[in-house]
Amino acid sequence: MSRLYFTADIRNRIHPPIPAYFGNGVIRLSASSEVSKITSSRIGEVAGSVKAVIDGLTDDYIRSFIDYMEVMHERKVSVITDITESDLRIRTILGMPIYDLDFGWGSPQLVSWERCTENRVVYLMNEPGEDAGIKAVVSLDSSTMKQFQKVFYEELMLFADE
Fold first, then answer.
1. Strand ranges of the sheet holding 121-126, from the earlier edge strand across to the other edge
2. Which of 79, 81, 51, 49 has its CA nearest to residue 65?
3. pTM (2 decimals)?
4. Which DSSP string do the residues of 63-102 spell out, in sequence order?
5. Distance between CA atoms of 22 and 111, rounded to whole angstroms?
6. How does strand 121-126 pair with strand 88-92?
7. What is the pLDDT of residue 38?
8. Within 5-162, where are the H helices?
9. Could you give the CA distance from residue 80 to residue 68 in angstroms, rounded to a whole number?
10. In 3-state terms, what secondary structure has residue 44?
11. What's the pLDDT tens digit per position in 6-46?
12. How many CB atoms lie within 10 A of CB 5?
């Protein structure tokens, strides 16, 4: 079993919507599947299963999750789990107006994460500019990097041509 951990923005999914502000309004989600199913599926099918998890993020689910987290906090119970060798975490600040900030000397020239040292984590952020893309910083230890290179170049790229 492999699990992908990621966050999803809840600002427009909760009612009433959270007003615009600079800060997080996210909830942690995960999608899981058998490794054999992931490796034998097209990348679009795998992405579709992740999207289905995000699409299931309703107002009721968010409020229930907040209640759960409050109870766990009161009980001083950690809800953070260790990731296994086949898991991956995504940390994202996509869509946050980080390049619109001005502390008096203009927009930032570079925005980055304070640390990128965790194993099996992908950090996502917008590049500056209207037509800019997405920056992905992948943090893997050397043994995981060798496995990633094999899967990416030898297996995933085969599906891209189909």
1. 26-33, 2-9, 88-92, 121-126, 134-139
2. 79
3. 0.68
4. HHHHHHHHHHHHTT--------TT-EEEEE-TT--GGG--
5. 15
6. parallel
7. 85
8. 35-40, 43-55, 59-74, 142-149, 157-160
9. 13
10. helix
11. 888 888 888 988 776 666 788 888 898 988 888 888 888 98
12. 19
64-113: pLDDT as tens digits = 998 988 898 888 776 666 667 778 888 888 777 778 888 899 888 877 77
Report the distance separating Cα 67 and Cα 7, nearest Å. Answer: 18
Q: How would you classify the pairing of strands 26-33 and 134-139?
A: unpaired
Number of helices followed by number of strands (H, E) in the chain: 5, 5
Position 19: which residue type?
Answer: P
Closest CA to 124 of 114, 132, 113, 110: 113
